[in-house]
Amino acid sequence: MLTKNDVKTIGDLFDEKFDKKFDGKFESAFKKHTTSIKEDIEQIRKDQKLIIKFFDREYLNLRKRVERIESYLKLSAIN
Question: Which of 6, 39, 50, 71 sits CB 3.0–4.6 Å from 2 for a disulfide?
Fold first, then answer.
């Protein structure tokens, strides 16, 4: 039966071998996959800003029109 010390030694050896074998490969694969994700996130942020800008402009135009109508009809604005 293995003792705690034996298990720890085996684990340390495994970690050491794993680090040596996969160190560079893992990092390059990780960067490769995350690059496309970062590009997608940047595009989503640009689209989001564009959508917000469009609807903000539309809201301001609509508000201006409603105020003009209220003024013409001499209605009080409801707040």
Answer: 6
**Rounded to an integer, what is the distance from CA 45 to the centroid of its chain?**
8
- H/E element, 1: none
| Residue-wise pLDDT tens digits, 8-59 | 888 888 777 777 666 667 778 788 889 999 999 999 999 999 999 999 999 9
Q: Where are the alpha helices (DSSP H) in 1-79?
A: 4-73
Tokens of 58: 């539309």
Q: Are 51 and 41 in contact (CB under 8 A)?
A: no
Task: Name the pTM for this structure.
Answer: 0.53
User: Any residues with CB less than 8 A from the CB of 75 and at least 6 apart, and which?
Assistant: 69
